[in-house]
Amino acid sequence: MKRELIPGLGGLALAIVTSAGCQGKAAPPPPAAPPAVTVAPVVQQDVPVYKEWIGTTEGNVNAEIRPKIDGYLLRRVYAEGGLVHQGDLLFTIDPRQSQAQLEQAQADLGQAQAQLAKTEQDVARFRPLAEQRAISQQELDDALSAERAAKAAVASRAAAVHQARLTLDWARVTSPITGIAGAATQQVGNLVSPTTILTTVSQVDPIRVPYPISEQEYLQQVERAQRDPQAAAGNRLELVLSDGTVFPQKGHVLFAGRQVDVKTGTITSVALFPNPGNLLRPGQYAKVRAVTEVKKGAILVPQRAVNELQGGYQVAVVGSDDKAEVRTVQPGERVGKLWVIDSGLKPGDRVVVEGFTRVKSGEAVNPKEAPPETAANSVTPGGK
Fold first, then answer.
1. Whole-angstrom distance, CA of residue 281 vs CA of residue 263
2. What structural domains does the chain harbor?
3. Does the predicted TM-score (pTM) go above 0.85?
4. Which residues pair with 208 in a beta bridge?
5. What tens digit of pLDDT does each residue of 265-310 get?
6. Using H for helix, E for strand and C for coil, what is the string for the chain?
7. H/E/C letters for each residue in 314-379?
């Protein structure tokens, strides 16, 4: 069976095929717009480098209050947890036994004084008689010896009276220092003795803060102090409290400990802070902060501009031609919201703070300047 073409339709079919072939070729896509990123200029300025150590507050003086005598506790006078001054009465102990001892000592003293008066009279009477040889010299010597013994007895009895008065005074337990008095450990009616701790009074103005520093940090501090004693003496310490606030009073290093702890490799340093109003109490969390050095002309970038990748750190830098370059940098200390960059950047560079994942080295980007607060040039203390 033969197929025949209909005259005049062959050209139409060819035109249709040709038209279909032309419609199958897509137009080339327009070039992609550069990715939008947010950039901030690096900051260059002198940066104080801070280090921080964790410590605990404790009283500058912690006096354990113990009675000097045995007896029953009669009264607690002070307010627990309140401020007491040196010499303030804290407790009273039953004084009757001490009062009886004082009266006995006074009676013994009176007896000794009466004996001394008799011996003095004997000496006064025997002396002229001995000169007239009415009595022997031996009798006068005996009278003189008795007088000396009576004087010694009077001195001994007087000392006993003084001791008895002290014992009676010790029935009143007073504070040896000015400070905060703790809770009483004994109740009224308890029998107490010199081994009994009644309470503890802590001097908290000024207040101590012991904190451990590494052996290397200790050696660095000693080296700085030897190199510049005036700067070391003027280096004031800051105290950060548990709520993050900075204590308004500045402190100083009081002393370093005697030895390095072989288990931890640290040495205890003790700082002293003024504490007006007794705001700080022993046992509080305290973070001691100090400037250890000042980096001159340091380069700083916002912390979010630095990206950590497999143990390394990178930033994206946008040049004047708006092309990006990913650089490896060496970061240093964190200072507030900024980060010191020790190497990899230079003054005038612009770094990407938002959109790092959209950046490829050598390709153009659409940079937008960060708000002023993002690239703030103010530096606040912070840790590494």
1. 29
2. 36-48+295-369 (2.40.420.20), 52-60+206-293 (2.40.30.170), 95-170 (1.10.287.470)
3. no
4. 58, 272
5. 999 999 999 999 999 999 999 999 998 888 888 999 999 999 988 8
6. CCCCCCCCCHHHHHHHHHHHHHHCCCCCCCCCCCCEEEEEECEEEEEEEEEEEEEECEEEEEEEECCCCCEEEEEECCCCCCEECCCCEEEEECCHHHHHHHHHHHHHHHHHHHHHHHHHHHHHHHHHHHHCCCCCHHHHHHHHHHHHHHHHHHHHHHHHHHHHHHHHHCCEEECCCCEEECCCCCCCCCEECCCCCCEEEEEEEEEEEEEEEEHHHHHHHHHHHHHCHHHHHHCCEEEECCCCCECCCCEEEEEECCCCECCCCEEEEEEEECCHHHCCCCCCEEEEEEEEEEEEEEEEEEHHHCEEECCEEEEEEECCCCEEEEEEEEEEEEECCEEEEEECCCCCCEEEEECHHHCCCCCECEEEECCCCCCCCCCCCCCC
7. EEEEECCCCEEEEEEEEEEEEECCEEEEEECCCCCCEEEEECHHHCCCCCECEEEECCCCCCCCCC
Identify the residue whose tokens are 């107490």: 192
